[in-house]
Amino acid sequence: xxxxIDALEERVAHLIHTVDELSDVxxxxxxxxxxxxxxxxxxxxxxxxxxxxxxxxxxxxxxHW
Length: 65
Known about the structure:
Blueprint: H1 2-48
């Protein structure tokens, strides 16, 4: 009986360790998503507003056209 309990405790310890590692990964991913969302908002703001010459980026043709 004690061998069985020891085996279960060992499995639970491994599961707890795995959950902690996954939690850290998810937290890092959430931080990265927040950072990228802020950067994307800045890019969209720059693209939708006029540049220093008064031109709007969305109205310009790419230089290779």
